[in-house]
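Appendix C. Worked example: thioredoxin-disulfide reductase (NADPH)
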Amino acid sequence: MAPITQDGQTYEYDLVVIGGGSGGLACAKEAAQLGAKVAVLDFVKPTPLGTKWGLGGTCVNVGCIPKKLMHQASLLGEAIHDSKAYGWELEKPEKINWTKLTESVQNHIKSVNWVTRVDLRDKKVEYINGLGYFKDNHNVHVVMKNKKERTLNSKYVVIACGGRPKYPDIPGAQEYGITSDDIFSLDREPGKTLVVGCGYIGLECAGFLKGLGYESTILVRSIVLRGFDRQLSDMIKLSMEEKGVVFHMGSKPQAVEKLDDGKLLVKWTFNEKPEEVHEEIYDTVLFAIGRYALVDDMHLAKAGVNVIEGKVDVDINSKTNVDNIYAVGDVLYKKPELTPVAINAGRIIARHLFNNSDEVMDYDDVATTVFSPLEYGCVGLSEEKAIERHGADNIEVYHAYYKPTEFFVPQRSIRYCYLKAIAIKGGDEKIVGMHFLGPVAGEIIQGFAAALKAGITMKILKNTVGIHPTVAEEFTRLMITKSSGLDPTPATCCS
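Step 2, the predicted output written as structure tokens:
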């Protein structure tokens, strides 16, 4: 293909995307479909343990996909236990084969890696397995896996480098600890595990490990699920404690030491008494204390791109402070770090650049789900944010406990099955937040997310006929408000 000449300048490519994760791939493929000449760079530095993976980014390889599969494996174990109450006679005891599980998960991931590469080829996107960094705002230098080097000249560049898990600055953390980058392909049973950190990644890992039969303990520096609704976050903690997960609140790790038998001695302190050092022996220590964007390797200063608190800020068109450089995904400053967000934003960038689209990414009211043992799905504002934005006197919270029908026969705990809708007082009561704690929360909240984006009100919700018996119908039965002081616990499944 001949060089591209635009605005008096000649370029080798229309677009170079640095990063082969969800957002970068979506942008690259959409741009190619619109006629652009596109190259996408992707390179994975091994973890301290040596773990590495293929094309597709965090979600496919060490994030959403393997996490959901591990979560499903955990739920299947619980279902096997429940099945006895339903009359199933099982001869063998329930025990997970960790090697078989990880092999199955990794085989699926590798198939997705392969399909992704084929898709790029079919869409005429050039894939380069190399680490890219800026020489200036139009030139990206690449050090490829085979150690060869080349420079790509492009009219536009999209930064989609993503991020990686942090390690604490304590002795033994990187030498003996692992992160979510390692757990899904770990070549041994995790055994008794300490999870350090209590965001959604920490909760999910501790949750599925416990469900798979491994002892799980979480060190929590301050609060559970920072940034989420406080009431629901606390209820998740209580539901996990009910299942046997141990939480050490207000704690901080101090050191990890490897013993002669290969086990790990972990020392930690509590915030209230930092002079007292506690210790316990574990088989695995998993750090989930947050993530950092991979900006340091990219030489952003050479391209003139500003970095704020380790992230890249963009305008409503996802453009950085440099006119021809855009950014998408987990590298963004104060934007949701979610795969569907990155995919949508990536496609919008491509349409903006190569199809004159004036569409912009809407980062408000993005639904999400925490795949804890009892799942938590939410969309819109937390109760705290609603009060902050609209004032306590101007919101009404409708809430209820409920009883999933499938929980009755095996007598599973329903103590924390709960939901609420946060509405603005007056008129038809516009809903600004919906929260659901219970089975298949992600499947349920997705539909209500579309309703919330469309402006659903409590009047509409109350006039919606539910599908019985489902847990999703509980949203259509919300009648009791917190301000009324009435008991939100139903007498029966049909009350």
